[in-house]
Every structure is written in structure tokens, then in C-alpha cells.
Write a structure and sequence with these properties.
The chain has about 80 residues and is an alpha+beta fold. About 30% of the residues lie in helices and about 40% in strands. It has three helices and four strands, in the order ααββββα. The chain has helices at about 1-5, 10-15, 70-79; strands spanning about 20-25, 35-40, 45-55, 60-65. It has a four-stranded antiparallel beta sheet with strand order 1-2-3-4. The chain is globular, with a radius of gyration of 12 Å.
């Protein structure tokens, strides 16, 4: 995520600690596991979209990126 989208592991954790809002769930066709999507902000107010799964009691981030303009607008309405 850092090389591709400029989002660190710590920033992903911050999104969850700062009250991430759930926005979706889907089943991965390749693995059959549930994938969840949340939006939230880092401590520095960076707007982040995170896709993750739960494995053996842990959160595993699949992807993290900055929110799109539309996602930011929707997030502001829901906060």
C-alpha cells in the first residue's frame, strides 16, 4: 500500500482507532473469504479507504488508498 498508494500500515491502524465507518462487504471470488470496506481518517486527517479481511482473529489489510472526491463527500455527510 505504501508503494502503490502512499498509505502506511500505521495510517491503516489509525483509521480503525479513529472510528472508521463501514461502507461495504463482498466475498472474494478467488478465496471465498469476506472482505470489508471502511472509510476514515488518520490522526493527521488524511481521508483513507481500507479493504480488509479477518483471518485467525486478526485484521489483514488487503488494500488502502486515499478516498475519492465522492467518497470524501459521502464520508463528511455520515460523520
Amino acid at each position: 500500500n505504501w508503494r502503490r498508494h502512499g498509505i502506511t500500515t500505521q495510517e491503516c491502524e489509525e483509521v480503525f482507532l479513529n472510528g472508521a465507518l463501514p461502507v461495504g462487504i463482498q466475498v472474494s471470488p478467488a478465496s471465498g473469504e469476506d472482505r470489508y470496506a471502511v472509510v476514515g481518517e488518520t490522526w493527521e486527517r488524511k481521508p483513507v479507504f481500507v479493504v480488509f479481511t479477518l483471518r485467525m482473529g486478526s485484521v489483514r489489510v488487503i488494500s488502502a488508498r486515499l478516498m475519492t472526491k465522492q467518497e470524501r463527500e459521502d464520508y463528511e455527510l455520515l460523520r
